[in-house]
Write a structure and sequence with these properties.
- This protein is of the alpha/beta class.
- It has one domain: Divalent-metal-dependent TIM barrel enzymes (TIM Barrel).
- The chain contains 9 helices and 10 strands.
- It has an 8-stranded parallel beta barrel with strand order 1-2-3-6-7-8-9-10, surrounded by 7 helices.
- Strand 4 and strand 5 form a beta hairpin.
- Helix 3 packs parallel to helix 4 and helix 7 runs parallel beside helix 8.
- The longest helix has 21 residues.
Length: 278
């Protein structure tokens, strides 16, 4: 029998819409919760929790901001001041998570930096040091972390499940697991379902979008194989949909025309596909 998993939606995919409008849409579409974008200037934990609860939703996970106060959130940056700023941001995000009943908290490299400014080896070492500090702080708050594996066109250090497992081994933090994303895996993994099996019990969170970052069924990703792999490893965590409307600039969800209407169509199709396999 298939495992019942919570289904959620990334709030950033709605663009500049307010959280009230996003919650109403996500709830109407039948999801269980959201992955909240970690804009700490925009959200206050009690307000967020109450607003989502009013719509029958909860925060399933947090995804980090990419920039704060004009500075990149980049835990591998060779500039020590930028790294300290990134670690401090993640400290505050962990405190936010603790005040929100401790949803999973995602960590990743700075999205859009696709080459080392120093060297790959040096920046990997810096990433490991930063992650160790972030994980230690989060552990004191009882917060579990997941490191998101991004494709080579978005980040340069950790692009496959194998890369992520090696990173976890080097960091050595008991509260750090892996976030795999079907869209990124479509680019980087020769056999995505095998990558899920290889990550196994160290998988903490799973994102879905088809090969074109639209809803399930609109691209060529073999989701039946991926769901079978999740069943094989007895994955019980959330599945978060991170689809976007088509159009230029992959780093913004805002496209021409009714991009929210397109997104809602993708979300509805994806939830129906996943719910049929729960």
């Amino acid at each position: 029998m298939a495992t019942k998993r919570a289904l959620g939606v990334c709030t950033w995919t709605y663009g500049p819409r307010g959280l009230e409008d996003i919650a109403a849409s996500v709830s109407k579409l039948g999801f269980d919760g959201v992955e909240l974008h970690g804009d700490l200037d925009a959200f206050e934990p009690r307000t967020v929790g109450r607003l989502l609860a009013d719509h029958g939703l909860r925060v399933l996970s947090l995804t980090p901001a990419n920039d704060v106060a004009g500075a990149p959130v980049d835990p591998a940056h060779p500039d020590a001041a930028i790294r300290r700023g990134a670690v401090d941001y993640y400290r505050r995000l962990a405190e936010f998570a603790a005040a929100l009943d401790r949803p999973l908290m995602s960590v990743h490299g700075h999205v859009g930096r696709i080459a080392a400014l120093a060297s790959q080896a040096e920046e990997r070492k810096l990433l490991i040091e930063s992650l160790a500090a972030i994980a230690a702080q989060a552990r004191t708050l009882g917060v579990e972390l997941v490191y998101e594996v991004l494709n080579r066109y978005e980040s340069h250090l950790v692009n496959t499940g194998e890369d992520a497992l090696a990173l976890l081994d080097e960091v050595g933090a008991s509260n750090l697991r892996v976030l795999l994303d079907a869209y990124h895996m479509n680019i980087e993994e020769g056999r995505p379902a095998d990558a899920v099996r290889a990550v196994g019990k160290r998988l903490g969170l799973f994102h879905v979008a088809d090969s074109n970052r639209q809803g399930i069924g609109r691209g060529h990703t073999d989701f039946a194989a991926l769901i079978s792999a999740l069943e094989a490893i007895d994955y019980r965590g959330p599945i978060i949909v991170e689809a976007t409307a088509p159009g230029p600039n992959p780093f913004t969800p805002v496209k021409s025309g009714d991009f929210v209407g397109l997104l809602e169509g993708f979300l509805g199709e994806t939830r129906a596909w996943l719910a049929a396999r729960h």
